[in-house]
Amino acid sequence: MTRSEMKRPFLFLCLVLSITSMFISSCKQSVDNQTSDVLAVEFVDVPGDGENIEPFKMAKTEITNQQYVDFLNAALRENMITVGSATGASSWIVLDVDGNQMLNILGIRVIKDHDRDGIYELWEMENPLNRSMIEYNSDKEMFNVVNPKDVNWNIYFDDSLYPNVIDQITDWCEFHEFWPDGVTHEGREVIVFSKDIYSTDGSVKDNITFAGHLDTDCELPTLEEVKNWPVNHIQYYGAKGFADFYEYELPSLQEFQWAGKGGHEDWVYATDDGTINMDNVVYNGGYDRSTGKHKGHPQPVATFASNPYGVYDVSGNAAEWTRTESSEPNNCRQNPADRGSSGGDSVPTMLRIDGAWPRPDMMCKISDCIVTEINRGNDHFGFRIVKRE
Fold it and tell me: What is the mean pLDDT of the chain?
């Protein structure tokens, strides 16, 4: 056997070892990528009250769109969730292994008759950006966060798809790059709260356009911004499924309210100083809800300062599920809007903290909570997690 022939088995072994090493490295990197965003969730220490609440760690922020997408893709690979087509090509229902509905990735616009008078009015039209910003690609079998620039926003004003739509795309300045050619948002009055769209004679003002108070620059949110919005349209099992998958928990109602006070027994709001205003909370601005509705949408988590414990957004941005059952003693509201729409008293209920971007100040108090059907989950339903030592 020649020296060259003797080297061949050795070279082959080296090649096998090299490929094996690359494969192991690739697998490790894949696993790391699956969990990296979840491991990046930052927690803060919340002390106990010395009586009923033990010390625990709470996530600084609500779970974001990107973190939830990472969870969905990891859970799908492990056959922990299933995805089924709903009513349209871009509409998907996500179920857990027990068949519980976690979220409806509708990709459609939220339209409500807020005063329930049977008439849809301009003040009731909500920002189309409050659609679910998560989509499912059935060809790639992957979830992704939606890039707003890639959405055809004109479809959300098509009355053949949305019979109750009465606004136009030019009513929303964040979509100005999608407006008809030759139509500009320059020089238009930006209305941040819809009661101001009416003139004294009851007619609609001319030359106006809508935006939330944090988006009066009229720029469409970037993909990076949307990735860091709190995930919404989450039903109870959608929140619980995330927590269970990573061996965390949802906070109890008592833990939420205790953490929200930040060590100050007399604080009413979970903010940096216990008060609420347009500069420290993503909320409805304290206006009378009977006369209008905020024209904004979620903002990136931790947009404003945290409370003294380092917890962000408990009093705003997204309403949040707790793990507390409604049968436990509580002083929570039972909102008729959250009951009877899908089975009434036959549908199990849980408690959630109600502070969110479309809510007025009175609903953003730490003490405010609401009995909620587990299969509810609209444009401001989100959650965060806690962990124990």
Answer: 86
